[in-house]
């Protein structure tokens, strides 16, 4: 992996130098981890002008732990731990850049606070600050096979945790209890932790995006919607499924489920290199709008995943750009009927060309409407 991290840093260095900057300062944690292999809390990465990374330094407020959740720094990367507690690694990086002879530095303005930006200007007033924009996020968009392997394992862990929950007794248990159990099972199966707060929604809460588990208990005849994900070596998966509790589904539940399933399938089948992001959204959304459920739909049908759970690309009506091969995304349409409940189906997939079998489905828990 050392060569991989070095190659990533060299690509970013080329972009920074092409923009007229002699150095680059990366502060967004996911971006630091992508380039350095680890992102200790508050750490920043300084890229110098020397090709091959001789001037590159990871600056930290404390020594890296090497724990899986934080990652392990690239062995070929210099690590500097600040001697004084409470020091700002970004400000220290500016000093290092000046010592290296840099007269300008590209920073992630979309991540730096105003106070931090002012501190950099104050400590190194002769250092010209430019905007790195989202250059690292653009590099992160297309995943290599090592990254996809981590995503695949994260998806397998989430599938395992969900599958075990479905074999347990659910009636009478609260949403909150089930969410906590799922997160424990993720860790038991090897996850760094949950990829995001686990959502368990029952009855009238089911199908709602962003629902926070409550003390409502599972009842016979409920829809049960579960959305969870695992983090493995920093990479995050996402899966969402809806089930019926106890009895055979009612006619309205079957009808609604079949509709959302058709929308999700349309979105999945639209994933291909070169496909416009908004067309994938439109494929899924068209099914739901055509059935009269246009009001209250989520703003997007899916999004990218990787070191963060919500990355580019965005699969939304106004999204610009096209999909590339080896880009992992979610497809997660849903319908919520106030007071009754709803359905959400969510998968993590990797965009692949048709010659390679089309989109690769990472989350494989059945999408059959099960009565539990």
Automatic annotation (TrEMBL):
Gene3D superfamilies: Creatinase/methionine aminopeptidase superfamily, Creatinase/prolidase N-terminal domain. It comes from the Bacteria. Residues 197-216 are annotated as: Disordered. CDD domains: APP-like (cd01092). The keyword Cytoplasm does not apply. Residues 8-142 form the Creatinase N-terminal domain. Pfam families: Creatinase_N, Peptidase_M24. Residues 150-352 form the Peptidase M24 domain. Keywords: Aminopeptidase, Hydrolase, Protease. GO terms for molecular function: aminopeptidase activity. Coiled coil: none annotated. InterPro entries: Creatin/AminoP/Spt16_N (IPR029149), Creatinase/aminopeptidase-like (IPR036005), Creatinase_N (IPR000587), Pept_M24 (IPR000994), Peptidase_M24B (IPR050659). Signal peptide: none annotated. This is Aminopeptidase P family protein. It comes from Streptomyces beihaiensis.
């Amino acid at each position: 992996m050392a060569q991989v991290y070095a190659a990533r840093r060299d690509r970013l260095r080329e972009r920074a130098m092409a923009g007229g900057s002699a150095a680059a300062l990366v502060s967004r944690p996911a971006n630091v981890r992508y380039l350095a292999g680890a992102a200790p809390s508050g750490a920043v990465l300084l890229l110098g002008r020397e090709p091959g990374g001789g001037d590159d330094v990871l600056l930290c407020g404390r020594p890296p732990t090497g724990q899986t959740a934080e990652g392990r720094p690239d062995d070929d990367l210099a690590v500097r731990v600040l001697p004084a507690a409470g020091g700002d690694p970004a400000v220290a990086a500016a000093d290092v850049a000046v010592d290296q002879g840099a007269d300008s530095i590209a920073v992630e303005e979309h991540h730096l606070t105003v106070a931090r930006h002012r501190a950099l200007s104050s400590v190194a007033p002769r250092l010209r600050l430019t905007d790195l924009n989202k250059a690292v996020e653009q590099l992160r968009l297309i995943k290599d096979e090592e990254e996809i392997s981590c995503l695949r394992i994260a998806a397998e862990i989430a599938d395992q945790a969900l599958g075990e929950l479905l074999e347990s007794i659910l009636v009478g248990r609260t949403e909150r209890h089930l969410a906590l159990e799922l997160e424990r099972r993720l860790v038991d199966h090897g996850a760094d932790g949950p990829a995001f707060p686990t959502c368990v929604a029952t009855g009238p809460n089911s199908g709602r995006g962003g629902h926070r588990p409550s003390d409502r208990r599972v009842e016979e005849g409920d829809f049960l919607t579960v959305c969870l994900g695992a983090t493995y070596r920093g990479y995050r998966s996402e899966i969402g499924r809806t089930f019926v509790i106890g009895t055979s589904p009612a006619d309205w539940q079957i009808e609604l489920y079949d509709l959302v399933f058709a929308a999700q399938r349309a979105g999945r089948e639209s994933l291909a290199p070169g496909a416009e992001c908004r067309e994938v959204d439109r494929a899924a959304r068209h099914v739901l709008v055509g059935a009269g459920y246009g009001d209250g739909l989520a703003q997007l049908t899916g999004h990218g995943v990787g070191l963060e759970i919500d990355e580019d690309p965005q699969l939304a009506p106004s999204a610009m750009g096209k999909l590339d091969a080896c880009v992992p995304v979610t497809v997660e349409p849903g319908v919520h009927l106030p007071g009754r409940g709803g359905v959400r189906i969510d998968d993590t997939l990797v965009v692949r060309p048709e010659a390679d079998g089309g989109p690769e489905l990472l989350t494989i828990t059945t999408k059959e409407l099960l009565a539990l």
